Amino acid sequence: MAERDAGDADGAESIGELLTERDETLAVAESLTGGLVGSRVTDVPGASAYFDRGFVTYAYDAKRELLGVSRESLDAEGAVSAAVAEEMAAGARDRAGTTWAVSTTGVAGPGGGTETKPVGLVYVGVAYAAPWGTEDSFVRSERFRLDGDRAAVKQQSADAALDSLARAIREVDAER
User: Fold this and answer.
1) What is 18-85 written as a DSSP string?
2) Distance (Å, rounded) from C-alpha 144 to C-alpha 124?
3) Range of the domain at 127
4) What is the pLDDT of residues 66-76, one digit of tens each?
5) Contact in structure between 103 and 125 (CB atoms under 8 Å)
6) Residue 134 to residues 1, 23, 91, 164: CA-CA distances in angstroms?
7) What sign for the dihedral angle of Cα 44, 35, 76, 6?
8) Mean predicted confidence (pLDDT) in 116-136
9) What confidence category does residue 7 fall into, taking pLDDT thresholds of 50, 70 and 90?
10) What is the pLDDT of residue 10?
11) pLDDT at 6 over 80
12) Distance (Å, rounded) from C-alpha 158 to C-alpha 135?
């Protein structure tokens, strides 16, 4: 897990081009963004060629039931954690049978923050399913500290998710 600034995000169009070029697919798993990442992906004409589905799993039970996030991770780490972001991404990838998945979990505010998990703390998970037998599949997460009101944190979280996904796809391309 790395901590990054949200920075300038790759747009959903860029994600679409990368996935189309590679003939790969995407699923999303969202908590604090509530479907915003999936909405941004599907705003691009032709997204049906690579976008499979989105899971909006706001509650603990939804994360467990739909994505297979472990009770142990939720109990030990809480929903806003690297472990849960990674389990969400892996669960979305594996349940949808896609090449890629991206997840978001965090504290959008204005309430709900604590000293250790303040408003604006966000984790983005990315999961990749490499071809069988290559042992190149991975799941990873990044930590972000974002500023602003609830709407701004959600927008920046979606930007961070798209940016993290685009960087991961490009890294896999560079290794080929």
Assistant:
1) HHHHHT--EEEEESTTTTHHHHHHHTSTTGGGTEEEEEE--SHHHHHHHH---HHHHHHH-SSSHHHH
2) 8
3) 2-175
4) 999 999 999 99
5) yes
6) 23, 18, 20, 22
7) positive
8) 96
9) very low
10) 57
11) no
12) 29
| Strands laid side by side in the 121-128 sheet | 2-4, 138-145, 121-128, 100-106, 26-30, 51-56
Q: Average pLDDT for residues 29-37, to the nearest whole number?
A: 98
Number of domains in the chain: 1
Helix pair 150-175, 12-22: axis angle to 10 deg? 30
pLDDT value of residue 9? 42
Q: Which residues does residue 123 pair with via DSSP β-bridges, in sequence order? A: 105, 143
The CATH number covering residue 108 comes to 3.90.950.20
The residue-averaged pLDDT of 111-115 equals 90
Residue 70's Cβ-count burial label (10 Å; 0-12, 13-18, 19+) is middle
146-162 per-position pLDDT tens digit: 999 999 999 999 999 99
Residues in the chain: 176
